[in-house]
Amino acid sequence: MKSLNVLGKGALMLSLAASLAMAAPEKKDLKIGFIPLTDCAALVIAKEKGFFAKHGLNVELSKEASWANVRDKMTVGELDASHMLAAMPIASTLGVGSTKKDMVALMALGQNGDAITVSNKMYDAMMAADPAAMKKGSAVALKKVIASKTMGVPEFGMTFPTGTHNYHIRYWMAAGGVNPDSDVALKVVPPPQMVANMTAGNIDGFCVGEPWNQRAVMGNIGKTVVTGYQLWENGPEKVLGVQKIFADKNPETTKAMIKAVIEAGMWLDASWDNRKEASKILSSKSYVNAPTDVIDNSMTGTYMFTNGVTTPMPNFNVFGKKQALYPYYSHGLWQVTQMIRWGQLDKPVDMKRVVESVYRPDLFAKAAKEVNYALPATQWKVEKKFIDGVTFDPNKAVDYIYNAPIKSPKITKEALLKVNKWSVSAK
């Protein structure tokens, strides 16, 4: 009996060892891309505070010059994963504006975090045109400036054609009666170059993530008109993206990455002292390369719309709490509606099928449960907190596109309805 017991214990130890070996990351050395923005914070903190290492990963963070660089390096596999605009993995999977490559959005990297800032000259013109609209952050003031022709054809910077900031600035303009395809000129400008381009007079305004709005405001170069939080409260900004083949081949590595970033996001939202520590880390040349006080101003619960005037805004950035890291299908679906609204897709697609192939709450949930991160009750949400009061119901996504006051789709509503006859349980 004793010898059998010993054999039993030995077999159990071998079984446990095999189980641990199976759970180890398939690929431990990873290269993860990021753009110098404060919403790369969860990745930086996961590296600097040891969360990646805790989960068996040796991560090199690769600072990239532009979103185009990120797209190209992700497409060829030069990066294992990257900080990506919320629409980028979908655009890549559909082949919109780039070589088609199946991508996966493993998780969000937070919510909110961008803003629309205009030059001092444009701000003064908008204030003179309609001060009441300016108090609401409305583009109606811009529409009146355009009609007056005092500023010529305004030029605005956004960071990437199939990206959050392009869709946000277009949404803001269209809500105020401005046609972004004909009333203004939109230019692609990498985030770190926004302030220099405004200073040089190359653009009259821009939409970008922090700290570049606060850099312009605190440098007396421009003023912020509206934040992303006001434009779409708790909307997505960035995701952690990988090639689909990477997630398929490396399930344990993928899970380890998600767990590390969840823990980093929760650390960031645990206290304002943690945020201040994060600001110092982010300010280094290796990461965002901006003054700590500029980064602090959006990271620690306040915001400056004009230099010297501090406004409390505790949810300007949310990195972990309120399910901010969850990759909601509805968030991905909204990105697809904007691709269609603005003519970036020329063939009808089953929007639900596309989104469910790219956004992966199933992979997120497996990792989240292992680090006790609370999951939301639903994968689909009805979004109600947009600046124009319009509701986005995933079940009415086609109507949402064609009811928009200003749009330029290349697909007819009838053609899109033919391939979108689904319904989801959305709350």
How would you portray this structure in words?
With 427 residues, the chain is an alpha/beta fold. The protein is built from 21 helices and 14 strands. α6 packs across α8 (140-148), α15 (272-282) runs antiparallel to α16 and α17 packs across α18. The longest helix has 22 residues, at 2-23. It is globular, with a radius of gyration of 22 Å. Residues 1-8 and 10-21 have low confidence and may be disordered.
* Helical residues, percent: 40-55%
Task: Give the averaged pLDDT, no decimals.
Answer: 94
* Principal-axis shape: globular
The CATH class of the domain at 29-112 and 236-288 and 319-385 and 394-400 and 411-418: Alpha Beta
Number of helices: 21
Radius of gyration: 22 Å
Largest sheet, order of strands side by side? 2-1-3-11-4
Mind telling me which CATH architecture of the domain at 29-112 and 236-288 and 319-385 and 394-400 and 411-418 this is?
3-Layer(aba) Sandwich
Can you say what the CATH homologous superfamily of the domain at 29-112 and 236-288 and 319-385 and 394-400 and 411-418 is? Periplasmic binding protein-like II
End-to-end C-alpha gap: 59 Å
What is the beta-strand fraction? 15-25%
Helix/strand-derived category reads alpha/beta
Largest sheet: 5 strands, mixed
Q: Write down how many β-strands occur, each being a DSSP E stretch of 2 or more residues.
A: 14
CATH topology name of the domain at 29-112 and 236-288 and 319-385 and 394-400 and 411-418: D-Maltodextrin-Binding Protein, domain 2
What are the segments in which pLDDT stays under 50 over at least 5 consecutive residues?
A: 1-8, 10-21
